[in-house]
Design brief:
Elements (H helix, E strand, L loop, with lengths): L1 E8 L13 E3 L7 E11 L3 E10 L6 E8 L5 E8 L6 E8 L2 E7 L6 E7 L4 E9 L3 E9 L2 E8 L6 E7 L7 E10 L2 E5 L4 E3 L2 E8 L7 E11 L2 E10 L13 E4 L2 E9 L3 H9 L1
Antiparallel strand pairs: 1-2, 1-21, 3-4, 4-5, 5-6, 7-8, 8-9, 9-10, 11-12, 12-13, 13-14, 15-17, 16-17, 17-18, 18-19, 20-21
């Protein structure tokens, strides 16, 4: 089975250049679960607050959690569930506006893309409404030239076919209904995190799934984006170099010069599949 963990990249690391990836992995004492798909909720001088997917090795479906990590030591200080359903949850994409903090998680099994609002006092996600009536994976929204664009893949073609939709408001009506297919390739289609703006240019992080799910991350520079077309150029690729989490890396996000990623390693335990089936 696979074990995921999240980590933080040294601020001096240049994502757009060919350098050896150096990650400070989160230290935690949980033996039966791992953490993936990290999105930075809050950054202070002393802590990182991260929304992430929690994967229990003995259960079928993952849930979403809020993690508080010591900034200096990278030790996990607190773990609190923020959303649990009967179906699998992952990729807690965060949107902030004047009305608060919203999350669009992946929940392909529901057949819909839902919006939740984060209640900081209760530390939970509260359902708001359905955004798109389709089973979408790793939905990611970006504001670009006075419009909003939503990028995602669809169930059945999660790792290969990238679609996008556009709207005049961030939570408006996204069109066309089925989306526009802009890429069909196991390399660089499925989203791997939020868009990143640097020096006036936008960059898209995507997964390289050609050699297996979440093997690495491809970075693209956005050349042009309109409601009917999209163009990009590949800039760089990132693959795991850590001897411990050496089998995959598939989410990367940046906030306030802090970069968070996840890492994957394969482990052998003959009892995991048996226990999952029994449950």
């Amino acid at each position: 089975f696979g074990e995921w963990n999240i980590g933080f990249i040294d601020p001096s690391f240049d994502l757009l250049k060919d350098q050896k990836l150096s990650v400070n992995w989160m230290k935690h004492g949980y033996k039966t679960c791992g953490f993936a798909d990290p999105f930075l909720y809050n950054v202070t001088d002393t802590i990182f607050e991260v929304f992430a997917e929690e994967i229990n090795f003995y259960r079928k479906n993952a849930c979403l959690v809020r993690l508080v990590v010591d900034r200096q030591t990278k030790v996990l200080l607190e773990r609190k569930p923020i959303l649990k359903l009967d179906t699998h949850l992952s990729y807690p994409f965060i949107i902030r506006n004047k009305e608060g903090v919203f999350v669009i998680p992946e929940n392909v099994a529901s057949g819909k893309l839902n919006i939740y609002k984060y209640d900081e006092q209760k530390n939970c996600l509260i359902f708001q409404r359905v955004l798109i009536e389709l089973p979408l994976a790793d939905a990611t929204v970006v504001g670009y030239k006075d419009r909003f664009y939503l990028f995602a893949t669809k169930k059945g073609y999660d790792n290969s076919d990238l679609y996008f939709w556009s709207a005049d408001r961030i939570f408006g009506e996204y069109s066309p209904r089925e989306g526009r297919l802009i890429k069909s390739d196991f390399t660089g289609s499925r989203m791997a995190g939020n868009f990143f703006c640097w020096d006036g240019r936008f960059y898209r992080f995507a997964q390289d799934c050609k050699g297996g799910y979440g093997r690495g991350i491809v970075i693209y520079r956005v050349i042009d984006l309109t409601p009917i077309s999209y163009k990009e150029e590949e800039i760089h690729r990132i693959y795991p170099t850590d001897p411990f989490y050496r089998d995959g890396i598939h989410t990367l996000n940046i906030n306030k010069e802090v970069t968070v990623v996840d890492g994957y390693r394969l482990r052998y335990n003959p009892f995991v599949k048996v226990i999952k089936k029994l449950r």
